[in-house]
UniProtKB/TrEMBL annotation:
Record family assignment: Belongs to the glutathione peroxidase family.
Subcellular location: Secreted
Annotated protein name in UniProt: Glutathione peroxidase 1
Major location (coarse): secreted
Organism of origin: Chrysochromulina tobinii
Length: 156
């Protein structure tokens, strides 16, 4: 996301929404989140580009999902990536909703209900919204973020 922020500057707004619904990977509170990025994941004094707006932690799935994500998922039910399995999961990348968690005994337990086909599958799923405010594309967690530039260029 930093590369896109640097490339497009103030032509594009990049919004980030931390979420703890995916394997409890974001356990810290809102005041600690940026420090976790800087010192833990990915670490090495990592910092988000100043033009990226980071919101407070929010739910993106289930009954308590933020209305923004309910709206985005209703507009774009599944990611629009090619229907290929690039990670060897046994299903195409956009179709990989809930996968076994190898380091957790193969568990497939999710942290929200109800589970819906349109749910965001994991961290780093992305939505591209056009200048008119309408969703244009949804990308799976596996989609190379840098490749979103081609779609942004079409909109600009």
């Amino acid at each position: 996301m930093n590369a896109l922020a640097k490339k497009y500057g103030n032509k594009v707004d990049i919004l980030a929404f931390p979420c703890n619904q995916f394997g409890h990977q974001t356990n810290e509170d809102n005041s600690e989140f940026l420090n976790t990025l800087k010192y833990v994941r990915p670490g090495n004094d990592f910092a988000l580009a100043p033009s990226i707006t980071v919101f407070e932690k929010t739910d993106v799935n289930g009954a308590d999902a933020h209305p923004l994500f309910k709206w985005l998922k209703a507009a774009m039910m599944i990611p629009s990536d090619e229907m290929v399995d690039t990670k060897g999961n046994g299903v195409a990348d956009p179709d990989a909703l809930i996968l076994p968690r190898g380091k957790f005994g193969g568990s497939t337990v999710v942290l929200w209900t109800p589970v819906a086909r349109s749910d965001i599958a994991w961290n780093f799923e992305k939505f591209l919204v056009g200048p008119d405010g309408k969703p244009v594309k949804r990308y799976s967690r596996y989609f190379d973020t840098n490749l979103i530039a081609a779609d942004i260029d079409k909109l600009l």
